[in-house]
Amino acid sequence: MSLMRRLSICFALLATLLVGQAAHAQYVSPGAARLAPPLPAPPPPPKIEVPQVPQFDAPPRYNYQPLPRSSFSDRVTKCLDDAAAAGLGLADRGTYARSCAN
Fold first, then answer.
1. Neighbours of 93 (CB within 10 A)
2. Residues near 66 by beta carbon (within 8 Å), at least 6 away in sequence
């Protein structure tokens, strides 16, 4: 055999051994699963509720409670915006906002 052929065979054999060792290093043994933490319990199933269906003959129920009043700053801002939309001048806007916000 020629020297080149012997070197090619040795190189191929060496490459096969190295690749085989790398693949062997990735092998996971069957006992490794026992060392892993247990899986968490599955979440509880979602609670399904049937919505209340309105009845045709039931009298309507109204909410008579007043809406909560907005802050003074919000009321003044709204009044100034309303005055500007109405075309009032700067002096008239302030007068309108003072009477409107209170």
1. 19
2. none
All residue ranges of the chain with pLDDT < 50 are: 22, 24
Structure tokens at 86: 């109405």
- Give the integer Cα–Cα distance in Å for 28 and 39: 19
What are 82-88's contacts with CB under 8 Å, separation 24+? none
Residue 1 has a pLDDT of: 58
- Give the Cα separation of 5 and 11 in Å (integer): 10
Q: Are 83 and 96 in contact (CB under 8 A)?
A: yes
Q: Residue 29 has what pLDDT?
A: 56
Quote the DSSP letter at residue 87: T
**CA-to-CA dists, residue 34 to 24, 31, 38, angstroms:** 21, 6, 9
Compute the residue count for the chain.
Answer: 102
The pLDDT, as a whole number, for residue 19 is 67
Rounded Cα–Cα distance for residues 20 and 12 (Å): 12
